[in-house]
Amino acid sequence: MAFINKGKICKFCENRDLKIDYKDYNSLKKFLNSQGKIIPRRVTGLCTKHQRHLVKAVKRARNIALLPYSYNLEN
Amino acid sequence: MKQYEILFIVHPNYEDNRITKIVNNVKEKITNNGGSIINVDEMGKKKLAYKINNQRYGSYVLINFESEPQFIAEFKKWLKIQSQILAKLIVKLDNKDLKEDNKKGIKEEEEKTAVSDEIEKEEEVAEDKKSDDENIEEESTDQNKEA
After folding, report:
1. Strand B55-67's sheet: what is its strand order?
2. Does B32 touch chain A if contact means CB atoms closer than 8 Å?
3. CA dihedral B129, B135, B138, B143 (to 10 degrees)
4. pTM of the full predicted structure?
């Protein structure tokens, strides 16, 4: 689900209507790799601010079992 | 008074009428302690990303409420004791979020009806989701290879 942005323009700065919300776990999945780790800003191309919000949202979603801490645990 | 948002998971054995009882208990707890409820949204039964108390499924309920900050610590303790509630997450809403919500308040109401329809569909599809999850994992591994 890797979201690779080579143009280096932050997706959330470009489109202000996009919101980062921990309840919207399906769109957060784009920023996780196959293990369920958060993909670094170097790859996603997000700005500092939005990557920070994203990380917070992913961690909240993990806490409430919307996203897994790791995809490998049960396999 | 500050605005908060609580998302909690109800044990899968509790359905329909029994869920509303639990939700009403939580609502009463808030209102009895000087808070007020803004919005309640039952998000329906979903598969958990990992097992909690050996349960694979749970019903998510979202409540927006207003309360004094001192009440939150007590509220968390109370929720922990409730055996029907598997997990909870309380988030304080920033001023930024609230401003945006007010602007889009009318739009959201329209969307919510659409979202609730979607959730009903999701429940029907829930059983097929297992296979979907596997597909997603396969896709991601493929993309990693490309990278």
Report:
1. B36-52, B55-67, B2-10, B85-92
2. no
3. -110
4. 0.71
